[in-house]
Amino acid sequence: MAEDTLFSQIIRGDIPSDQVYQDELVTAFRDISPQAPTHILIVPNKVIPTINDVTEEDEPVLGHLFIIAAKIAKEQGIADDGYRLIVNCNRHGGQEVFHLHMHLVGGHPLGPMLMR
Ligand code: AMP
């Protein structure tokens, strides 16, 4: 059986979420603890635990994450002003959920890229 994660349960609808998009490859829903006016997670439906686990087989879904991020940013009205896409990896990256996901954050100026 494939590994189950919090996000797999959200993708299946077993745990409620504020979903903004879903297709056969990815699901997007609002972050439960938003760090900006717009904060949406875009998640491959397939469990890939971290960026370290990606394989060439994952290339289509990883490319699709960007296509859908751009589409959602446009739909949310933040594309022209700009936004940030973040993928955290493991402990130093601050990853909390081990199901690869892209954060789409925007809606106001985001400041410096990294806290020092
Ligand atoms: P990361 O630190 O990159 O692994 O990000 C995990 C993100 O998942 C955090 O921003 C959390 O706020 C978010 N999160 C955790 N549980 C939920 C949930 N049930 N619904 C939506 N977002 C969640």
The fraction of residues in strands falls at 15-25%
The major pleated sheet works out as: 5 strands, antiparallel
Figure out the total of helices: 3
Bound molecules: adenosine monophosphate
Which structural class best describes the helix and strand composition? alpha+beta
Sheet with the most strands: spatial strand order: 1-2-3-5-4
- Rounded to the nearest angstrom, the distance between the terminal CA atoms is 41 Å
Overall number of strands: 5
**Rg, please?**
14 Å
- CATH superfamily, called what? HIT-like
CATH topology (level 3) name = HIT family, subunit A
Shape: globular
CATH architecture: 2-Layer Sandwich
Question: What's the structural domain tally?
Answer: 1
CATH classification, class level = Alpha Beta
Mean pLDDT: 96
- The percent range for helix content is 10-25%
Q: What are the segments in which pLDDT stays under 50 over at least 5 consecutive residues?
A: none
Order of helices and strands: HEEEHEHE
